[in-house]
């Protein structure tokens, strides 16, 4: 009976959690998320055998506590699917076709999928690259990063259920997936997995570890969780990683903050670095 009892959770607790998560990972939690936060974290409070949220917050006062990983994992929203906002993949295809397919390139095309969740977006990019180059080994390197370690482990495995493949065509299904009949799942083929390197990265980290630039960055459906200042500084950081003429893809509901002169809108939330 005690297991299902409500645990003490005050306005002050919510504010403390909102401030912890904002400072560490940039996610800005509005007051109306109070219940959602309770539901997302209650399991963590119990897993740590604590009897209220105040104790949990105290525990997070230790910046290097292992609970931090579970805490941020619990508070991220990870919805994604294959070929989400499909026009971006068409634009990417046209861009790569125009600049890299018919010329001799000495370096692989580098693409960063910067909030990759469970992997569908990064693998959609990889499939697009195989299609545009017309080979299962295109000269492409895809870096796929996310903050959440749980979604990254799903992404690395690359196993999906039939309903997750709704937007994948029959042809792509045969070309890019292995069918596992015994449990009715589809696994990304090794040659597609080989194009993607998954790594944990917090977009809020003052410094990122990459030291080369990218021909395209995908940062879709994550900036909506950040406030304007955070969005602005993130875009400034992306600008350093994009040479002139390269592309930045944002999510459909993401407005570009004002005073941005490093990017111009190409079309449909796709920007060119100027
Ligand atoms: C809604 S999903 C979007 C997934 C994919 N980009 C798409 O558009 O389908 C948002 C992702 O952003 C990640 N995220 C949130 N804050 C982050 C941060 N500070 N650094 C890196 N990733 C973050 C979450 O873990 C989550 O997987």
TrEMBL record:
GO terms for biological process: methylation. Transmembrane segments: none annotated. It comes from Vibrio qingdaonensis. It catalyses: L-glutamyl-[protein] + S-adenosyl-L-methionine = [protein]-L-glutamate 5-O-methyl ester + S-adenosyl-L-homocysteine. It is an enzyme of class 2 (transferase). The keyword Glycosyltransferase does not apply. S-adenosyl-L-methionine binds at residues 78, 80, 84, 121, 146, 202-203, 220-221. SMART domains: MeTrc. This is Chemotaxis protein methyltransferase. Its EC number is 2.1.1.80. One of its GO terms (molecular function) is protein-glutamate O-methyltransferase activity. PANTHER family: CHEMOTAXIS PROTEIN METHYLTRANSFERASE (PTHR24422). Pfam families: CheR (PF01739), CheR_N (PF03705). Keywords: Methyltransferase, S-adenosyl-L-methionine, Transferase. It comes from the Bacteria. Methylation of the membrane-bound methyl-accepting chemotaxis proteins (MCP) to form gamma-glutamyl methyl ester residues in MCP.
